[in-house]
Amino acid sequence: xxxxxxxxxxxxxxxxxxxxxxxxxxxxxxxxxxxxxxxxxxxxxxxxxxxxxxxxxxxxxxxxxxxxxxxxxxxxxxxxxxxxxxxxxxxxxxxxxxxxxxxxxxxxxxxxxxxxxxxxxxxxxxxxxxxxxxxxxxxxxxxxxxxxxxxxxxxxxxxxxxxxxxxxxxxxxxxxxxxxxxxxxxxxxxxxxxxxxxxx
Length: 200
What we know:
Helix content is 58%, strand content 0%. The protein has nine helices and no strands.
């Protein structure tokens, strides 16, 4: 359950400045996820996250690569909601079970180029952007370009906002999403192909 200090807003109770963003999400999904309703307490945070995530969707990274970045951040930051949501999104983009399970576990990916992206994303997180030369060189040697390094940083920034906010808020899972299992959890992960996504 969300923390009692925070309100799961409706379009009627939310601050006026948050309502257009909430309405946009509702139109897209057909419902308002609790995480969005909770973030609406701060219209600036909600609009900042939605805007940054939408810009990340327009980068030169393909959909699977973007989800590698997002799931790496979500698993590293322990955001069960983000892991569940982006498991569904990656499955929708034809991510393999092996790829999804590895990302959720924080393990090496089966495809070398995507593994280089995952490792680079981890290096960005671990070194707070000051990625060692050898890590950057390995990333570029795998076929990525310098702009992709910056695209990944944008993804890290956007989804650090959401993972931190969701953890602060104790945002609940949407019932249609797959289970939230992270490394160390006991439950079996269901990798059904949900069509739910905020940013398709």
